[in-house]
Specification:
The chain has about 190 residues and is α+β, with helices and mostly antiparallel strands. It has 3 helices and 9 strands. The protein folds into 2 domains: about 15-50; about 55-190, Rieske Iron-sulfur Protein, CATH 2.102.10.10. Helix content is about 25%, strand content about 25%. The strands form 3 sheets. The protein has a 3-stranded antiparallel β-sheet, with no helix packed on it. Strands 2-3-4 form a 3-stranded antiparallel β-sheet, with no helix packed on it.
Length: about 190
């Protein structure tokens, strides 16, 4: 007498799904292990692309304003760029405020370029907007151009005491970097 074997007797899928669920479970475990393994390999690679601690430290700098006398300026480096920090005189402030916007090729008020309550300080990126030269004007012996700000000797661009382009081929004002006053005598750039 021959006996017929059912599919469940041979370990194949049954209507109850026991064989299928074991196979699915093994696929799930294998896939999860592969995902975790891939993550363990890829994460250090991605993490190595983050900036190092010394680069992060240069993301912002603090500048002490106390030693800068009225009419003088200093140059500091921030993210590899020269930043001009100038202590403007009352005369320089008045001249910068009195400029007619129609006289500017890149119209911007002086008030838009400074921090409220700190009109005596101007902070700009010291890179000429024409071809990327570094203008002169922070040292007392430097030529400052007709408007008393900065002068780029390479092609003759001149900026006023607010860093606005007044003459020459430069198409735009000297950019103002992100900065904030931490105290009346200290700023943080970046």
């Amino acid at each position: 007498m021959a006996t017929s074997l059912s599919a469940s007797d041979h370990g194949a899928s049954s209507p109850h799904g026991e064989g299928t669920s074991k196979r699915d479970f093994l696929k799930l475990v294998t896939g999860a292990a592969a995902l975790v393994g891939t993550g363990a390999i890829v994460w250090p690679l991605i993490d190595s692309m983050n900036p190092s601690q010394d680069v992060l430290a240069l993301g912002s700098i603090e500048v002490n304003l106390e030693p800068i006398q009225a009419g003088m300026g200093i140059t500091v480096l921030w993210r590899g760029k020269p930043i001009f920090v100038r202590h403007r005189t009352e005369k320089e402030i008045k001249e910068a405020e009195d400029v007619s916007l129609s006289a500017l090729s890149d119209p911007e008020t002086d008030a838009a370029r400074i921090k409220a309550g700190h009109a005596q300080w101007i902070v700009v990126v010291g890179i000429c907007t024409h071809l990327g030269c570094v203008p002169l004007g922070n040292k007392p012996s430097d030529p400052r151009g007709e408007w008393g700000g900065w002068f780029c000797p390479c092609h003759g661009s001149q900026y006023d005491t607010s860093g606005r382009v007044r003459h020459g081929p430069a198409p735009a004002n000297l950019p103002v970097p992100p900065y904030a006053f931490e105290t009346d005598t200290k700023i943080k750039i970046g």
